[in-house]
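tokens incoming
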């Protein structure tokens, strides 16, 4: 039976993959800007507030969850992220907070943080402009995507933990996942909020049919073999948390090794029709963790 979303909502614009100019595999040469990607397709959609969703979604079953979870770090401390000392401080102090959260909420036996990004929106530019200008500024990701499929998830673990350690962990546990914990920094989100895509109304959803791989070339610093851009489907349900505060987080699955669960949650920043023209720019931090389970639940 199809899920009919109810509760508080907004309207806005999401941007999605719309094919390639030559019908071939999508690519982007980040050195020259050459690409066969067609311009992204703009979709006007209704986006429902997760806080009014009934029943409240849970990370294990639904692939995403919103909850209050204050941090001991201040805005000023987060904003030192560009310095070596600031990066290390976030790893030393913030990562353990999220390890505890994930272990409590998921029932996992081990959680290993391995990557963070702090996105600091630059007013006056669309996020794609910053990307193609290669300024080094981390903008909201404006194309709806899934961070990982099985190939990139394994690649991440091998690179971050070493192939031997990765094999040991996979062999020692019945299941593993990558979970992203996303938090605003400084003020509630008022511009380019994060949305997640609930795809439960799309039967037999799968990566080959519902996502497109986009390969980057000539970018030695990029850490993935490819990106997974979401293809549009009329039955998707779009969800967000209205004015998410720095005392709250959105958790969502980047990947799950169990094939009968939500294996990855599509997400991206969207242009909220109700955002004020002079809304303050968005600041947010996301941390990814390898998560290991000793049961099949």
């Amino acid at each position: 039976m199809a899920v009919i979303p109810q509760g508080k909502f907004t309207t806005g614009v999401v941007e999605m993959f719309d094919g390639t100019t030559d019908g071939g595999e999508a690519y982007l040469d980040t050195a020259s800007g050459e690409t066969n990607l067609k311009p992204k397709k703009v979709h006007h959609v209704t986006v429902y507030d997760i806080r009014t969703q009934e029943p409240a979604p849970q990370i294990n079953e639904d692939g995403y969850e919103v909850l209050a979870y204050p941090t001991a770090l201040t805005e000023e401390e987060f904003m030192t992220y560009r310095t070596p000392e600031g990066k290390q401080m976030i790893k030393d102090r913030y990562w353990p907070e999220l390890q505890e959260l994930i272990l409590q909420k998921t029932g996992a036996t081990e959680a290993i943080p391995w990557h963070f990004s702090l996105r600091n929106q630059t007013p006056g530019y669309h996020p794609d402009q910053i990307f193609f200008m290669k300024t080094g500024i981390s903008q909201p990701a404006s194309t709806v995507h899934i961070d990982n499929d099985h190939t990139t998830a394994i690649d991440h673990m091998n690179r971050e933990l070493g192939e031997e350690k990765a094999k040991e962990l996979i062999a020692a546990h019945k299941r593993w996942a990558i979970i992203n914990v996303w938090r605003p920094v400084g003020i509630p989100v008022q511009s380019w909020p994060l949305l997640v895509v609930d795809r439960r109304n799309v039967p037999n959803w799968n990566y080959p049919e519902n996502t497109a791989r986009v390969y980057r070339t000539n970018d030695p610093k990029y850490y993935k073999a490819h990106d997974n851009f979401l293809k549009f489907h009329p039955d998707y349900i779009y969800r967000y948390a209205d004015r998410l505060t720095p005392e709250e987080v959105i958790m969502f699955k980047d990947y799950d090794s169990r094939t009968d669960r939500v294996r990855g949650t599509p997400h991206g920043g969207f242009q909220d029709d109700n955002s004020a023209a002079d809304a303050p720019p968005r600041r947010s931090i996301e941390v990814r963790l390898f998560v290991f389970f000793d049961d099949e639940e």
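note: Residues 20-293 form a domain with the Jelly Rolls fold (CATH 2.60.120).
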